[in-house]
Write a structure and sequence with these properties.
The structure is a single chain. By secondary structure, the protein is of the alpha/beta class. It has a domain of 116 residues. It contains eight helices and ten strands. Strand 3, helix 4 and strand 4 form a beta-alpha-beta unit.
Length: 223
């Protein structure tokens, strides 16, 4: 969104309620907006996939579920680029406290509605924040984070900067990051830094060697 209006000029977008693998969710009415040029919140692949398949990123979701099933429910999940809440709702229903962050106010509003639908309002705290080079690094805290999921379309390096001290002190057990070398060349640095902090990297369940010979992939980093 640019201010409170998408590039197509819409101040809000219609939603549908659908049944998904994590429970009922409000999604954007994709068919209504799919032919619009430019960025439109309603022209949304997450919503389209949930409408058609009832799940988003099935292999990645199984990885996240495995991490959370074997994790400590006293730890935190941070969902950066939470969108309408697929991973936040999943984590909340599995008993985790969640901090959900997105730069789009309408996404956050829809996530809040989904939290109500799934009775996890008490589990999810929401923050409308645009993560970029202007955001300041967080101070070290005693909190242990079970998982940080980061998907912010090329700005992932700024999220790493934000949590740098937490990562160095190994207060983050797992990170699941969408790498998109097609966007910019920041990803080799992310990989190198996380290796230096003591993390191991995995792509599609196998050790990842840092070779950026793909357009987009989700990379798991774990201690």
């Amino acid at each position: 969104m640019i201010g409170n209006v998408c590039q197509a000029g819409h101040k809000k977008h219609d939603t549908l309620k659908v049944e998904t693998g994590v429970g009922p969710m409000f999604v954007y009415d994709y068919e209504k907006y799919k032919d619009i040029a430019g960025y439109c919140t309603g022209k949304d692949d997450v919503s389209r996939t949930l409408i058609n398949e009832g799940a988003w990123e099935k292999p990645e979701t199984e990885i996240v579920k495995g991490i959370l099933e074997n994790g400590n429910r006293n730890n935190l999940l941070i969902d950066i680029g939470c969108h309408i809440g697929w991973y936040s709702i999943l984590a909340g229903k599995m008993g985790y406290q969640v901090k959900a962050i997105d730069g789009d106010k309408e996404n956050i509003k829809t996530l809040k509605a989904n939290a109500i639908l799934n009775s996890v309002v008490d589990k999810i705290s929401t923050f409308t924040i645009w993560i970029d080079g202007e955001i300041e690094k967080l101070k070290t805290a005693k909190t242990i984070i079970e998982l940080i999921k980061i998907d912010i379309e090329g700005n992932e390096v700024y999220a790493i900067n934000l949590y740098q001290d937490w990562l160095k002190e190994k207060r983050v057990r797992n990170l699941f990051i969408e790498f998109s070398p097609v966007f910019n060349n920041s990803y080799p640095d992310i990989y190198k830094r996380l290796m230096e902090y003591g993390y191991k990297a995995f792509k599609n369940g196998r050790r990842f060697d840092g070779e950026m010979n793909f357009n987009q992939a989700n990379i798991l980093f774990k201690l």
